[in-house]
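Example (one chain per record):
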Amino acid sequence: MSQKTPVNWEKLEEKPEFRTLMTRKKAFIIPATIFFLIYYLALPVLVGYCPDLMKQKVWGEVNIAYVFALSQFFMAWIMAFIYVRVAAKWDKAAAEVIDGHH
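Predicted structure:
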């Protein structure tokens, strides 16, 4: 069993590759979080301020509010799927930065 050399996180943080990786992560995470929060909070806001719009039937007794609520489940799954794919690339980039650090 081989022992790995501990990572010096302070020196690693100073590397341009590490800073670039952190910038890429922030460029995805912050807008994605803002989008998700706006999408999630839109339902109660629309139901509160535009009840007539949200009561409109789209199929039988199903109204816009129900469709919007159901769409939030799909949006969460889609966002999770996209995040997992993007995070896998970050993991590879992080491994390269750490391996190149030794």
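Caption: Strands lie at 57-59, 62-63.
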